[in-house]
Amino acid sequence: MRRALLALGLALPLLAGTAMAQAQQQAPQSAETAQAVPNGAPTAQQQSQDRGPGPDKGAPEVQAPVPESQSAGENRQQQAPTSTATQQPTGTPTAPQPEVAPVPVSPIPAPPPVSERAQPSAEEQELEAALKGQHIQGRISIPNQSASLLVQPQGRDWRAFRNQTLFWTGAIAVLGMAAVIALFYLIRGRVRLEAGFSGRTMLRFGFIERVVHWMTASTFIVLALSGLNLTFGRHLIRPLIGDQPFTDLTHYGKIAHNFLAFPFTLGIVLMFLFWVKGNIPNKLDLVWLRQFGGMVGSGNPPSQQFNAGQKVIFWVTVLGGGLVALSGYLLLFPFTVAGVNGLQWSHMLHGTLSMLMIAVMLGHIYIGTLGIEGSFSAMGSGRVDYNWAREHHSLWVDDELRKAHDSVRPEAAARPAGAD
Amino acid sequence: MARMKFLCDSDRCIECNACVTACKNENEVPWGINRRRVITLNDGKPGERSISMACMHCTDAPCAAVCPVSCFYTTADAIVLHDKDLCIGCGYCFYACPFGAPQFPKVGNFGGRGKMDKCTYCAAGPEQDNSAAEYAQYGANRIAEGKLPLCAEMCSTKALLAGDGDIIASIYKERVQTRGYGAGAWGWRTAYRETVDA
């Protein structure tokens, strides 16, 4: 029975036919040999080994009940003591001074078979970690515990993301959007006020709203440019201005990026609070979207304070900006929340969303300035022309007029009909 | 020229941390920075082994590939070095490095990454060889003196080998053949896309 098990244990790795299996066959022998007779002739010991696993042979029998330990790559050290301990009492001819003293009083028990013995080599562990997306970590005795990471193959994926994925995503998103805008301008041209300027204006955004908008917008531009510089600068700007100037530029860009993150985030939060009420999607948005907001063709679909396109911008800014800010803070405070893999994911989210947001904001900037006549003053002076409001936000104008009317005659609704 | 590599024989490393200490002393590395460290895998369990790890001076180094200011360069001995005057401390090299080699001194605000510091293979940086300026920024330049990195030079069990890749690989192979076992060269598959088969 034991022999059968042993044979199985030996046969399995042989059947595998790998070099590893070969090495495992060899290794225990040589380790055993070294333990048994340090100065002995190797051939003699080989023969003694080759006499096969007789019933008096210690090591293999101990191993036999656990055939999987035969496939261990690194179990020589554990095996060696086993073999010597069990060989001595049997008096193998190769053992030194076999006749010395009667058997040691208490035979040293063989170490229990441990499944952890099966340790693949360094290369195999690295390959396994790379394939499984895991990292190899141990214990370290210096205070910096994050240094206990021995190998993190995920770095290669992150490198591919940064050098290829992000590069091309950004290039296509930003340049693509710029091309779309240019094409649109060439085909449709500027969307003029159909009725022309009336000369009468109405307040669209108050002072605080405009301040917050421009705080967010200006920080976004600096954040975007300094961020784009990290991805494209070394290809576009560095060859033009040289190493040291480019480092200075990027260094100040990094400082600006780190500090301006805070006003940007504040702006996102405040804009959310100011405008979330007017940006809840509703059925009117479907009508607006079906007509492409009047950007294509003529006619302006009715719209409340914000039309569907503006709602998209709002939610992109709030959700996208929020996530970008969140991932940015994780990067800004490395190892407080995220480890190196967490930082990699943060950067991937941060980079991808930022590129898409930059593309969307290019569209926003175009529409708010060149694209639609009369719209810039909404965020400039805060007041828009009455005709602009009628054409683009007809329902909002009605609302505003009703409010104005009510403010003049506040009790109008409460008064019974025909009371005066 | 030689192709310089590190090889840590984890069957010999006894986790004495002398390489860490030697590195810090030789290069006067500031507090909180460890260019070299010893990591113990399977601590207290069968199969426990310790590996001394630092920058492996990779072939096609990931740090150099992702650096936004391209501050890395490779010497004729294939040692990966960087120019601290160009480094902006963005941390990208740390994300890309499989071995966690780049270190950042804590300076300034927030995460406060200063200019990156890593093992230079005792070859310092781009400044004039063995000048005071070079020493202040990068530490010792033993390579310019014809010496190997101190961590490997003074390793008590000669677990850590430094030198030309072919030579240290052959030393390791000879060891493995003589003693009959070897766990393999840690990091070689990742850093050099090759393995040391005994």
Automatic annotation (TrEMBL), chain A:
GO terms for molecular function: electron transfer activity; formate dehydrogenase (NAD+) activity; formate dehydrogenase (quinone) activity; metal ion binding. GO terms for cellular component: formate dehydrogenase complex; plasma membrane. It is found in: Cell membrane. It holds the Pfam family Ni_hydr_CYTB. Residues 1-21 form the signal peptide. GO terms for biological process: anaerobic respiration; formate oxidation; respiratory electron transport chain. Residues 95-114 have a biased composition (Pro residues). Keywords: Cell membrane, Electron transport, Heme, Iron, Membrane, Metal-binding, Signal, Transmembrane, Transmembrane helix, Transport. It comes from the Bacteria. Residues 204-381 form the Cytochrome b561 bacterial/Ni-hydrogenase domain. Coiled coil: none annotated. Its cofactor is heme. Its main location: membrane. This is Formate dehydrogenase subunit gamma.
UniProtKB/TrEMBL annotation, chain B:
The keyword Zinc-finger does not apply. GO terms for molecular function: 4 iron, 4 sulfur cluster binding; metal ion binding. The keyword Iron-sulfur applies. Signal peptide: none annotated. Residues 4-34, 78-107 form the 4Fe-4S ferredoxin-type domain. Pfam families: Fer4_6. Gene3D superfamilies: 3.30.70.20. Keywords: 4Fe-4S, Iron, Iron-sulfur, Metal-binding. This is Formate dehydrogenase.
